[in-house]
Design brief:
By secondary structure, the chain is of the alpha+beta class. The chain has one domain. The chain is built from 3 helices and 3 strands; from the N terminus they run E-E-E-H-H-H. The protein has helices at residues 31-38, 40-50, 55-71, and strands at 3-7, 14-19, 25-30. The protein has a 3-stranded antiparallel β-sheet with strand order 1-2-3. Strand 2 and strand 3 (25-30) form a beta hairpin. Helix 1 (31-38) packs across helix 2 (40-50). It is elongated, with a radius of gyration of 20 Å. The relative contact order is 0.10.
Length: 77
């Protein structure tokens, strides 16, 4: 990795990325930017469920996943 990230605020929410060799400032990012930027699958899922028209999809998918998990231990079904 050619970039070193360090918090720039007291709460640790804003970060500055500096080049390891030159020390030059290259990027600024929030904590969420760093999490979602490093995991493409998580970012894609977050974008799907965060869209304005995704409320029903979130509810439907959550209920389906919850039901599946709860029924995995039910051997009497």
């Amino acid at each position: 990795m050619a970039t070193v990230w360090k918090a720039t605020d007291e709460r640790g929410e804003l970060f500055e990325g500096r080049d390891r060799k030159s020390g030059e400032s290259r990027f600024t990012a929030t904590r969420a930017d760093l999490v979602f930027g490093s995991n493409s699958v998580l970012r894609a899922l977050a974008e799907v469920y965060a869209s304005q028209d995704a409320q029903q999809k979130l509810v439907t998918d959550f209920v389906a996943a919850w039901t599946k998990v709860m029924n995995l231990d039910r051997f009497d079904l």
